[in-house]
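Holo prediction — S-adenosylmethionine.
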Amino acid sequence: MDISDIISGTKGLNITDRLCILSFALSMKKEDVLIKKEMRLNQEDVELIKSLIEKRTQGMPLAYITKTKEFYSEEFYVDESVLIPRPETELLVEEAIHIIKGMNGPVRILDVGTGSGVIGITISKHTGHRVICTDISSEALKIASINIKRAGLSDKIGLICMDLIAGIKDRTVYDVIVANLPYISQDEWDFVSEEVKGFEPKTALFGGKDGLEVYRRFIDALQGPLKDNGWFLCEVGGRLQAEAIKDMLVRKGFEVSIKRDYSGIERIVIGQWISLS
Ligand SMILES: C[S@@+](CC[C@H](N)C(=O)[O-])C[C@H]1O[C@@H](n2cnc3c(N)ncnc32)[C@H](O)[C@@H]1O
């Protein structure tokens, strides 16, 4: 069997999936897979490729098969213990980087619900500042740790396993707190694709009845670790959630703006705590 047999013989998978699987299994660039179509495959490679194709046919996301997802033009390691980073989250990171670059002196940054670490790692890489990344899942933090090492940022990024910010006892420590916490509501859950529901961790996605249960608890506790005039940025699932989070923050004395994603959906809530003291 050669590469072209796999490319032409795999029913039900699109060409991108086939090429990605071949490139991953054979450790070859996608262009080379196409150039070397006549290359004979040994039995071991054929079996590996068939098992990966089978997984993809059963709905496993490509990122979990190839253990890689691109985010902010960098490759990150992912597996089923973490959410596959989404393109919308790049907007959250972009806004955070913009704010941080406008600040003077060392900026202390917290990334809550870090998952694979993409937010904290990208912010640290592009601003040069230290970041503390937290998650309730110790399995997720193992993946974040792999990505931090790969990015060469072990001296810049710390990891803490905890429920939201429950373990942070010091007050007014952070200049910027960033979070992409679970926000899918009970009603929306029924419409989530099987590819997501069946493979990605529910703790990374499901935000309770209205989707805001985790954020509500978080915002209640936010003014402990956040400095006066500090910033809070988070990702949400659309207009209703963005408005609800805005209300929660305004009631606590934040000035708030909402940014839409490239599909026009209200996606990022940005608040600055204007302290009156
Ligand atoms: C939507 S995922 C985001 C992952 C990553 N930040 C990203 O943007 O790709 C939410 C993350 O929050 C974590 N999480 C859920 N509940 C949490 C809690 N109570 N405290 C801390 N982390 C939590 C999940 O384990 C998951 O890694």
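READOUT: The domain at 3-58 is CATH 1.10.8 (Helicase, Ruva Protein; domain 3).
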